[in-house]
Amino acid sequence: MGWVSGIAIFFIIWWTALFAVLPFGNRIPDDEAQLLGTQEETPTNPHMMKKAGITTIVAVIVFALFYLVTEVLGFSLADFPEIIPDPST
Question: Which of 5, 41, 47, 89 has the fewest CB atoms within 10 Å, i.e. is most exposed?
């Protein structure tokens, strides 16, 4: 795996982890604390920098596992059995 493909894979893993981390810790405000002009479900303080940090940590761990499996152990998608068998046999 080259460094460009490694960065691309990390980028995909990071965004996937971000969408998994986003809902954690969100609190819906009471009627008194809600700002005018916002939706009812809008969180009061989403803590985006904290979530970006958690996302980065999760992405580094998942990327390290991916690198271990693909580069160190030598597994690839071709090594997994086919889900749909070959119809010619």
Answer: 89
